[in-house]
């Protein structure tokens, strides 16, 4: 359903000049009933000047009268023949000038962490062109050495819900193809809420990779002394010769 121009100002005018219920006004301008009540209480839209929808050819007085007579009547926007057949202009997403310099970093993040996304999906998500995406994929971009992957949601280039919708669409396409996905790929192809609910995959610390077959400690049974092992004393350990009578005579002959 089409909404009137300057919806909040139109709601202010309807609250001040008609007896239409808050629910009817909210449905007409696309606002919640409690917001309309806040306007009536002076807590919402403070300082907003009312916008007359009748004088601006958006609503007829007959339509207002019907709404005042029946609380179940829904206000309808006045038909404008000049707008008939007009389609919304399609094009790339507009990106503010202050954020355009961060757009290549967001493309690099999407290419790195979501390689299943097509160039068209990335272009629509962050508002860029396919040649730019291709140059980043092939690492031929003129500033590729200074680029860092940054989440486009953190940069404000798209909403988390939009990113999740595109990722879920890619997940459905992957499942339709029947491809086998690893745990890492499966995490990339689900929304952020779903991935946070998954159990963490146990991983081997990088410092001891390749030592899975070894244990950090020895077998406790090996530490116990064996009964058949001989008891080693200091003399036998150093293999000292035992003294005899010849040695004593030799010592006495020196003197």
Question: What does this 3D model show about the protein?
Answer:
With 255 residues, the chain is mostly helical. It has two domains: 7-81, no CATH class; 88-200, no CATH class. 44% of the residues lie in helices and 0% in strands. It has helices spanning 7-17, 22-29, 33-41, 61-69, 103-113, 119-126, 130-137, 152-155, 160-177, 183-188, 192-197, 234-238, 245-254. Helix 1 (7-17) runs antiparallel to helix 2 and helix 2 (22-29) crosses helix 3. Residues 244-255 have a biased composition (Acidic residues). It comes from Tritonibacter litoralis. Pfam families: TrcR (PF06242). Residues 80-100, 192-255 are annotated as: Disordered.
> Would you tell me the structural class of the helices and strands?
mainly alpha
Low-confidence stretches: none
Main beta-sheet strand count, sense and barrel state: none
Strand tally is 0
Question: Per the principal axes of the C-alpha atoms, what is the gross shape?
Answer: elongated
Mean pLDDT: 75
Oligomer type = single chain
Radius of gyration: 40 Å
Binned, the helix content reads 40-55%
The secondary-structure element order is HHHHHHHHHHHHH
User: Which range does the strand content fall in?
Assistant: under 5%
Could you say how many structural domains there are in total? 2
- N-C termini distance: 127 Å
Discrete helix count = 13
Summarize the helices and strands and which ones pair or pack.
Layout: H1 7-17, H2 22-29, H3 33-41, H4 61-69, H5 103-113, H6 119-126, H7 130-137, H8 152-155, H9 160-177, H10 183-188, H11 192-197, H12 234-238, H13 245-254
């Amino acid at each position: 359903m089409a909404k009137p121009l300057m919806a909040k100002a139109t709601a202010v005018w309807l609250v001040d000049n008609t007896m239409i219920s808050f629910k009817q006004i909210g449905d007409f301008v696309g606002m919640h009933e409690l917001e309309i009540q806040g306007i009536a209480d002076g807590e919402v839209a403070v300082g907003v000047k009312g916008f007359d929808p009748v004088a601006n050819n958006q609503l007829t007085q007959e339509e207002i009268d019907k709404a005042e007579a029946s609380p179940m009547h829904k206000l309808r926007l006045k038909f404008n023949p000049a707008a008939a057949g007009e389609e919304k202009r399609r094009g790339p997403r507009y990106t503010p000038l202050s954020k355009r310099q961060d757009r290549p970093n967001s493309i690099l993040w999407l290419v790195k962490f979501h390689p299943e996304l097509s160039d068209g999906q990335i272009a629509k998500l962050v508002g860029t062109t396919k040649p730019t995406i291709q140059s980043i994929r092939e690492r031929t971009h003129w500033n590729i050495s200074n680029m860092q992957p940054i989440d486009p949601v953190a940069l404000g280039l798209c909403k988390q819900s939009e990113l999740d919708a595109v990722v879920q669409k890619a997940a459905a396409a992957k499942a339709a193809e029947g491809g086998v996905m690893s745990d890492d790929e499966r995490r990339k192809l689900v929304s952020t809420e779903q991935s946070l609910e998954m159990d963490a995959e146990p991983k081997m610390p990088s410092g001891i990779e390749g030592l899975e077959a070894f244990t950090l400690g020895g077998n406790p049974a090996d530490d116990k002394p064996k009964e058949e092992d001989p008891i080693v004393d200091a003399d036998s350990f150093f293999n000292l010769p035992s003294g005899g009578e010849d040695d004593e005579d030799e010592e006495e002959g020196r003197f």
